[in-house]
Design goal:
By secondary structure, the chain is of the alpha/beta class. The protein has four helices and seven strands, in the order E-H-E-H-E-H-H-E-E-E-E. It has one domain. It is globular, with a radius of gyration of 15 Å.
Length: 156
């Protein structure tokens, strides 16, 4: 991987939660129950003025890690390489701006764990599966579980 190669630059903010959800629905995006939970009262808000964020896409190899490893190990390694976790709401904005995502492995948006409750979802991932775009929530439990082909989204 080239040093901090930009995967995408996206606009974040400037929409209410209702506007964002309505645009996702209008684009045909599907949600799982964890995504609905994460879209409820967000732990933070992107603000009323849009801003541009630069995103990096990395896999375990780019992080110089091997499977199996835990989500916390991945976050720690990425931080040591100068990458930043994404705020929770970023997943919905990335899904909206990446409607041409090819079919294949999902992209996990690496976010800090939003709740101390282990039953609460950890964050979002996006996927194009069978020509259907998804914004899905995921949950981690600290166990090594990440396959080597999984890709993670971090901010620069």
């Amino acid at each position: 991987m080239q040093e901090n190669q930009i995967f995408k630059e996206i606009s974040v903010g400037g929409l209410s939660k209702e506007q964002l959800i309505n645009q996702l629905i209008a684009a045909g995006v599907q949600f799982n129950k964890y995504a609905h939970t994460l879209l409820e009262p967000p732990p933070s808000s992107p603000g009323t003025h849009p801003s541009i964020v630069k995103l990096v896409k990395v896999n375990l190899s780019a992080l110089k890690m091997q499977s199996p490893c835990s989500f916390q190990e991945i976050l720690t390694k990425a931080l040591s390489m100068g990458l930043k976790p994404c705020p929770m709401y970023l997943g919905a904005f990335l899904r909206l701006e990446y409607l041409d995502q090819p079919e294949g492995p999902y992209l996990t948006i690496a976010s800090p764990w939003p709740e101390s409750d282990e039953s609460y979802p950890t964050g979002f991932y996006i996927r194009n599966f069978e020509n259907t775009l998804w914004l899905r929530g995921y949950k981690v439990d600290g166990e090594p579980e990440w396959p080597p082909e999984n890709e993670f989204i971090f901010m620069m």
